[in-house]
Amino acid sequence: MDKVFTLHGWSFDSSIWSISSFERAVHLVLPGHGISPFKSTDILNLSKEVGEFIPFDSTLIGWSLGASVAALTAVFYPQKVKELVLYAPTISFSVVSQPETVVKKFLRKLKKDFLGTVYYFRNLCSKERWNIPEFSREKTIELLESFTWFDLTPYIKRITLPVTVIVGEKDFVTGLKGAFEFWKITKKCTLKVVPEADHLTVLKYS
Predict the structure, then answer these.
(1) pTM above the 0.90 mark?
(2) Which of 7, 79, 141, 147 has the fewest CB atoms below 10 angstroms from its CB?
(3) What pLDDT is stored for residue 100 in this prediction?
(4) Around 205, how many Cα atoms within 13 Å sit in the side-chain half-sphere?
């Protein structure tokens, strides 16, 4: 899987791919979540960094925030990305997936009690437990803020390559609506809903 690249979600790291069929892929680390080759915490610029990093004919596998970065990379570097597999994507976290008031409250809590709020978020994702990566508090907050207020709609309309969207029936983070709206807008897109799977355990399915 030397041309298959994964992008994990916020507050997790590449270890989550161990439960998926992409365990042997090349795992890319988001800024602030450990040792990463990428610098930008703006998801537009980050996706361009990813596009420069990957070779031609790559397959990108993204989960949650990582799905947004993967999709944008395919928009800016269509000559390099041949396929997208996106777990729990959303076109707009703060509008489609969660109410704006909830997002603002979460971000305030995150700045006051970073680790406590990370644990709270992880509990929303799944009851399964994972180790906390070596965080850069400032970078992870900046990256999350960029993701939460970003609208993918005008960008993903330009995607013409094959896309597979996979979402858990019991995803209460980005949610069924986020995945459905992504599927509805994107050409050549297949949507799979996994019964009983949550935001994290959906990674077990392909």
Answers:
(1) yes
(2) 79
(3) 95
(4) 20
Q: For 71, phi and psi rounded to 5 degrees? A: -65, -45
Return d(Cα 22, Cα 179) in angstroms, integer: 20
Q: Which amino acid is at 141?
A: I
95, two tokens: 């509008």
Enclosing H/E stretch for 4: strand 4-7
Domains of the chain: 4-204 (3.40.50.1820)
**What are the tens digits of pLDDT across the range 58-78?**
999 999 999 999 999 999 999
Distance CA 194, CA 63 (A): 15
3-state secondary structure of 51: helix
Per DSSP, 131 falls in state P
* CA atoms lying within 13 Å on the CB side of residue 38: 27
CB 59 within 8 A of CB 85: yes
Look at the chain and count its residues. Answer: 206
Cα distance between residue 21 and residue 86, in whole Å: 13
- Summary count for the chain: helices (H), strands (E): 7, 6
Which tokens in the block code for residue 38? 């990428």
CA 202/CA 88 separation, integer angstroms:
8
CA gap 5, 121 in Å, rounded: 25
Backbone angles phi, psi at 152, to 5 degrees: -75, -15
